[in-house]
Design brief:
two-stranded parallel ribbon, mainly alpha, globular, disordered C terminus
C-alpha cells in the first residue's frame, strides 16, 4: 500500500484494491498493444532523428569555422545547441532506456550507445533506469528527487541549509550534466568516509567519469576551436554557450516532470509489498506532463509526456503522444488528476515549490506539496 492510500484525505482514497489492480491491467494492455505494433515506421523515425541530429551538429560546427562573424556565431551556436539537446533528450536518454533494442541494431542499442554527456552511459543507466524508475519519487531512494540537495516535501525536516536551495538549484541548472555525473557517482555519500572514498569500485567509476569529462572538454574546448583558426575564441564561446543552453533546457524539462505542484512523493515503507497496479499508480501520481507542439515534444525527448514515460519507459518515445489520450482517459475514469500544463506554467510551478520548501512550514503557513483531498470519481 502506498502512503497516500493510508491517508483519509488521499487523492486515491476512493479506489479499492480491485480498482487499482484493474487500472494496472488496463495499462498493461496499452503497453502490450504498442509492443505488438512496433515496426518499420518506428525504426525509420529513430534513424531519421539520429541522421538529422548528426547533420545538424556537423553543419553547425562547419558554420562555426566562420564564427568570427556574428551571424555565423549566432547560427552555429543555435544549431549546435539544438543538436546537443536532441542527442541527449530524444536519442541518448531513450536509446539507453532500451526503447530501440527490439530493432537489434548494434548501432542503436542500449548496450552500445555512449552519449554526449559528462556521465558515462553505464553509470547513468544504473542510477536512472534501475534506481530512479524503480523508486520514482520515493524519499530517500529516488536520487532524482531533489538530487540530494533540496527539500521536496513538507514532511521532510527543515534545516537552515535549505534556505539556499533556490541557489543550489540555479547552479545545478547551469552545470546540469556535471551535477548528474556527480549524482550518478553518489559523491555526497561516497566522499564521507575514507572507506567509501578508497573503495575500488568507486575509484574506478570516478576515473571513468573524469576520462569522459576530459574527452568532452578536449573536443569542445580545444580541438574544435583550434580547427576554427582565426575563429578559435568565438568557436570556444559558442561551444560553451551550446552546452549551457543544453544544461538549462534539460534541467527545466526534468523539473517539469517531477517537481510541479500536484505531484506526489512517497515514503520508502509505503512501497513495501507494492503490487503491479500500485507501482503504476505511483508513476501516475509522481509525474507531470508538459503541453505543447510536436517540436516541443521532440526537443524534450518526449519527456513532455513524463507520465506516459514513467508508466512505459521501454516503449518507443514517438508512441507516447499516441497512448497519452488513452492514459488520460484512465485517469478520468478512476477519478485521478492528470497533472499537465504549458512549459512556462510548469517551470514556474516547479520553481515556486523549490522556493516555498526552502522555508520552514510555519513561516508561510502549511501548504502541502501534494494534493490531500481525494479526486472526484469520474461519472
Amino acid at each position: 500500500m502506498t502512503a497516500i492510500q493510508n491517508q483519509s484525505t488521499s487523492p486515491v482514497a476512493h479506489l479499492s484494491a480491485d480498482d487499482i489492480e484493474n487500472l494496472g491491467r488496463e495499462l498493461d494492455a496499452i503497453r502490450q498493444s504498442v509492443l505488438d505494433a512496433r515496426g518499420a515506421d518506428d525504426a525509420r523515425y529513430i534513424r531519421t532523428v539520429i541522421k538529422t541530429q548528426r547533420g545538424l551538429e556537423a553543419g553547425s560546427r562547419a558554420v562555426l569555422l566562420f564564427s568570427l562573424f556574428p551571424p555565423a556565431w549566432w547560427l552555429g551556436t543555435a544549431g549546435l545547441s539544438a543538436a546537443k539537446i536532441l542527442e541527449n533528450m530524444e536519442i541518448g536518454h531513450n536509446v539507453m532506456h532500451g526503447q530501440w533494442d527490439w530493432m537489434r541494431d548494434p548501432k542503436i542499442h542500449s548496450t552500445t550507445w555512449e552519449w554526449d554527456h559528462a556521465s558515462t552511459a553505464e553509470q547513468w543507466k544504473h542510477a536512472h533506469n534501475e534506481e530512479h524508475h524503480t523508486y520514482t519519487n520515493v524519499l530517500g531512494k529516488d536520487g532524482d528527487l531533489g538530487y540530494g540537495i533540496m527539500r521536496v516535501d513538507e514532511e521532510q525536516r527543515w534545516s537552515p541549509f535549505h534556505l539556499g536551495q533556490p541557489v543550489w538549484n540555479a547552479i545545478n541548472a547551469l552545470i546540469f550534466q556535471y551535477g548528474i555525473a556527480a549524482y550518478d557517482l553518489k559523491l555526497g555519500k561516497n566522499l564521507k568516509t575514507a572507506e567509501r572514498r578508497n573503495n575500488p569500485d568507486f575509484r574506478a567509476r570516478v576515473k571513468a567519469t573524469l576520462r569522459k569529462v576530459g574527452t568532452q572538454g578536449l573536443r569542445d574546448y580545444v580541438v574544435h576551436p583550434l580547427l576554427s583558426g582565426p575563429s578559435a575564441v568565438t568557436t570556444l564561446t559558442a561551444n560553451l554557450t551550446a552546452n549551457l543552453v543544453r544544461n538549462v533546457w534539460t534541467h527545466s524539462v526534468i523539473m517539469c516532470g517531477h517537481f510541479p505542484e500536484g505531484v506526489q512523493t512517497f515514503t520508502y515503507d509505503s512501497i513495501d509489498g507494492e503490487t503491479r497496479g500500485q507501482w503504476y499508480l505511483r508513476q501516475m501520481l509522481g509525474s507531470a506532463n508538459i503541453t505543447g507542439s510536436r517540436l516541443m515534444h521532440l526537443m524534450s525527448g518526449n519527456l513532455s509526456f513524463q507520465i506516459e514515460h514513467h508508466l512505459f519507459p521501454d516503449l518507443p518515445s514517438n508512441r507516447y503522444a499516441e497512448v497519452a489520450p488513452q492514459v488520460r482517459d484512465i485517469f478520468e475514469r478512476y477519478g485521478l488528476t492528470y497533472t499537465s500544463g504549458p512549459l512556462i506554467k510548469q517551470v514556474a510551478s516547479a520553481w515556486g515549490k523549490v522556493i516555498r520548501l526552502s522555508l520552514p512550514n510555519d513561516l508561510l503557513g502549511s501548504r502541502s506539496s501534494t494534493p490531500r483531498q481525494p479526486a472526484a470519481v469520474a461519472a
